Automatic annotation (TrEMBL):
Originating species: Aphis craccivora
Top enzyme class: hydrolase
Protein name: Mitochondrial inner membrane protease ATP23
Lineage of source species: Eukaryota, Metazoa, Ecdysozoa, Arthropoda, Hexapoda
Gene Ontology CC: mitochondrion
Family listed: Belongs to the peptidase M76 family.
């Protein structure tokens, strides 16, 4: 689901009749409510949506061709019989400025926010994260309205792609010796923030859902195989292991 930017207060969704609490209003273009006005164009650089989209699509295409993680996810989706056609299932769009991207389970589409996810690194991270939601939705029959299902797929996405060992040591949160505990705390925190970004629940409710399913979902490493810890060697090893796990 929606991938919130770091260090931002979560933007819980306001109610909309049909999808109350789902957070789809984080993608204003999808709801037809985003109206670029003169103030936006002058002061926030809006008005270049088409150019922005072309640039975003180019970077997405580059990730699809080059990023080992994105390639693992695309291969896993195909091998699992999930319908994945980049031009139909991955979309660059304008979003609320609080998010980088999201997964829309009704349309089965990954959304990359062309106005906030600008660097290739960010786009690669968002793509991998949201493709894990797509994979879970396809292979595990998720009900995204069920907060425990949502918590589980957010735990998996955080576990497999975020919370890097190297960055956590550099930031002073971790030594190699307490990495395991720190890594679990990082995954929990990230999953709670992600649940809060798309569901209109309290912090305590989000945390409770994450804690309840944590052990089972943290141990579930398919399809990436080993946790990605921010070192290129791990990307390469994960890519090699993907063959062993039957993905190409
Ligand atoms: Zn997510």
């Amino acid at each position: 689901m929606a991938e919130p930017k770091e260090n931002k207060d979560q933007t819980t969704s306001q109610s909309s009749e049909n999808y109350e609490g789902w957070g789809f209003d984080l993608f204003p273009e999808r709801r037809g409510t985003y109206k670029p006005n003169l103030k936006n164009i002058l002061f926030q650089g809006r008005g270049n949506e088409n150019l922005e989209r072309v640039k975003c699509e180019r970077k997405v295409a580059s990730c699809l061709n080059k990023s080992p993680l994105v390639k693992i996810m695309m291969g896993a989706l195909r091998r699992s019989g999930c319908d994945i056609n980049p031009s139909r299932h991955i979309a660059c769009e304008l979003c609320d400025t609080s998010v980088h991207g999201g997964y829309d389970p009704i349309m089965n589409q990954v959304v990359i926010c062309q106005n906030t996810a600008v660097s290739k690194g960010t786009i690669q991270g968002v793509l991998t994260h949201e493709l894990i939601h797509m994979f879970d939705n396809c292979t595990r029959k998720l009900d995204f309205r069920n907060i425990e299902h949502l918590a589980c797929t957010e735990i998996r996405a955080a576990n497999l792609t975020h919370c890097g060992l190297v960055s956590s040591i550099l930031e002073g949160h971790s030594s190699i010796f307490n990495f395991r505990k720190k890594h679990q705390d990082c995954v929990k925190h990230k999953a709670v923030i992600s649940v809060l970004a798309v569901r209109n629940v309290t912090y305590e409710q989000a945390k409770e859902a994450v804690e309840k399913v944590f052990d089972r979902c943290y141990a579930d490493l398919e399809p990436i195989g080993r946790r990605i810890r921010g070192k290129s060697v791990d990307f390469e090893l994960a890519y090699a292991e993907a063959f062993l796990m039957g993905y190409d």
